[in-house]
Design a protein that fits this description.
Layout lengths: L1 E6 L13 E2 L2 E2 H8 L4 E6 L2 H9 L6 E5 L2 H9 L6 H12 L7 E4 L8 H8 L8 E8 L4 E4 L2 E4 L16 E11 L1 H6 L9 E5 L11 H13 L3 H7 L14 E3 L2 E3 L5 E5 L6 H13 L4 E3 L17 H14 L3 E4 L3 H7 L5 E4 L7 H10 L3 E4 L6 H13 L5 E5 L17 H8 L4 E3 L1 H5 L2 H13 L4 E5 L17 H29 L1
Parallel strand pairs: 1-4, 1-6, 4-5, 7-11, 14-15, 14-21, 15-16, 16-17, 17-18, 18-19, 19-20
Antiparallel strand pairs: 2-3, 6-10, 7-10, 8-9, 12-13
Helix pairs in contact: 9-10, 12-13, 16-17
Length: 511
């Protein structure tokens, strides 16, 4: 199904409106990103939009072409009538073969319009209705102005009526028009056809950002509405609404996501070349699919071991060479990230940086695989919004990590939120792994935490392993010994089998 959108560089009523940032994403891009299931054609006079559609991998479903000069001239010289009908006709002649194929004409400035609404509206096309048009219902006293005189539409001005008794008035909000090539031509370039179906949409779907007041309303909704229904609407890149099937990412030779369960193991911190190579060899022999190791260690105390930094990255590269396994390591700022991509396969954002939005934007533009850990006090909505920052800025491979949240308990370092795993899998297509080491904090309960997370449906685990935990410079009490890690990989197979069976039997219905 084809979608046609025309986007102007300038707006007479709200300057630069298509480029205004709404929830961290440019207004025009918010709409384009939601339309991945459609064949989208964009006609624009903006060189910036044209280049963005060509360069941004997240907009690869867009066919963008520059506006013809005759229509630009028309727009500049004709203040009463726009060139849209003739631009549509050109598009139909050049790109549409099937004269009965429904075409959706969208306003790019309706940021809350749902994909489900569009699909339902298309279903209203039938023998009786040759087109569909979105309208808003007005349930109050309405007037029409002609020659500077006002006349009532839906009430008698001589009576004191209640608003409950009034007939509703409907206005075309132009959020979308749906028609066919045949109906458009037969009705003299009219989007409405002979028998349109007027499809009613309500607030906030019917918001069309045309004035600064509209934009203020949209900003207020983004910042203050935290209901699940709304979050699904505006969290379009991470959501199941945007992509129904599970994402599967290849990190080097390792596939992560879907039915692929990954075990990531290694020391919490890289302490020396000898230490890293010993542990890397041990975990590889025991069945690890990826290596972990911290070269940068953001610690609660400034006096604790902070990591070997670039020397640690060089050691990780040698461990990768020894084992042929991809490596993930934490980065803490733009400098460490720029260095890390020269040595490792995946960047980790730690719990303390989950809402470091400037870092997330920078990493997104790097378009390098990212493992995003949940903040120690973050809600799932906040967690997913951080992932959205990465995706919205260009990152194509984001893996979520539940690492335990802070509660009042003392028997573990954090509380592993096992319930977050099925909840996240219902809301997002991104892979989810767990960190049983940082949730447990104690060696004796790491394996139970790991098995619980795998059985609950996680796509893998990331676990601390150290062959001399008593001498570890970081988080020794929670590290598994190599023997314990071997036990974990053996036991994990049953939990993974249970998880895959549960996915097949339950999640197909849930999603």
């Amino acid at each position: 199904m084809k979608v046609f959108i025309h986007i102007k560089e300038e707006s007479e009523r709200l300057p630069n409106k298509n480029f205004l940032q709404l929830g961290g994403v440019e207004l025009y891009k918010r709409t384009l990103l939601k339309l991945k299931d459609f064949d989208v054609y964009v006609d624009t006079d903006s060189e910036d939009i044209y280049q963005a559609c060509k360069a941004d991998q997240n907009l690869s479903h867009i066919t963008c072409f520059r506006r013809k000069s005759k229509y630009i001239t028309w727009e500049q010289e004709n203040k009463e009538e726009g060139p849209t009908p003739f631009m549509i006709r050109d598009f139909l002649d050049e790109h549409v073969i099937d004269e009965n194929e429904p075409l959706i004409l969208l306003h790019v400035t309706s940021p809350f319009l749902k994909i489900g609404t569009l699909k339902d509206a298309v279903s209203m096309m039938n023998e009786k209705h040759d087109s569909v048009c979105s309208v808003s219902e007005v349930k109050t006293f309405s007037l029409v102005r002609k020659n500077n005189e006002y006349s009532p539409i839906n009430f008698d001005s001589t009576k004191l009526q209640k608003t409950q008794t009034l007939d509703s008035v409907f206005h075309i909000n132009s959020a979308f028009f749906i028609f066919t090539k045949k109906s458009y031509i037969e009705n003299n370039n009219s989007r409405l056809g002979k028998n349109p179906y007027y499809y009613t949409i309500a607030f906030p779907e019917d918001i069309d950002i045309d004035y600064s007041s509209d934009f203020c309303v949209a900003q207020h909704i983004i910042e203050n509405d935290h209901s699940n229904e709304f979050c699904t609407t505006h969290r379009n890149l991470v959501s199941r609404e945007y992509k129904k099937e599970d994402s599967v990412f290849n990190i080097g030779p390792t596939a992560l996501g879907g039915s692929n369960k990954v075990i990531i193991a290694g020391p919490c911190a890289v302490e020396s070349l000898d230490q890293m190579l010993r542990i890397a060899d041990d975990v590889t022999r025991s069945g690890a699919n990826m290596l972990r190791g911290g070269a940068y260690k953001p610690r609660t105390s400034p006096y604790s071991f902070q990591g070997l930094e670039e020397e640690g990255l060089e050691i990780l590269a040698k461990a990768k060479e020894l084992t042929n396994l991809p490596v993930v390591t934490e980065v803490i700022d733009e400098k460490s990230a720029s260095l890390a991509i020269q040595y490792v396969d995946m960047l980790q954002v730690g719990t303390r940086n989950m809402q470091n939005f400037s870092l997330l934007k920078f990493l997104g533009k790097l378009n390098y695989p990212v493992l995003l850990k949940r903040g120690m006090c973050a809600t799932l909505e906040e967690f997913l919004m951080s992932a959205e920052y990465l995706l919205a800025n260009g990152c194509e491979q984001v893996v979520l990590c539940e690492r335990g949240i802070r509660t009042f308990v003392r028997h573990s370092r954090n509380t592993l939120d096992v319930g977050a795993i099925p909840a996240l899998k219902r809301q997002t297509h991104l892979p989810i792994i767990i960190d049983p080491s940082h949730s447990s904090g104690e060696n004796y309960s790491v394996i139970p935490h790991a098995l619980a997370g795998l059985a609950a449906g996680s796509h893998g685990i990331i676990v601390d392993v150290h062959d001399k935990p008593a001498e570890a410079l970081c988080d020794g009490p929670q590290a598994l010994s190599p023997n314990q890690f071997r036990k974990l990989t053996y036991l994990a197979q049953d939990a993974i089998e249970l998880s895959n069976r549960m996915d097949e039997e339950l999640f197909e219905e849930l999603l």
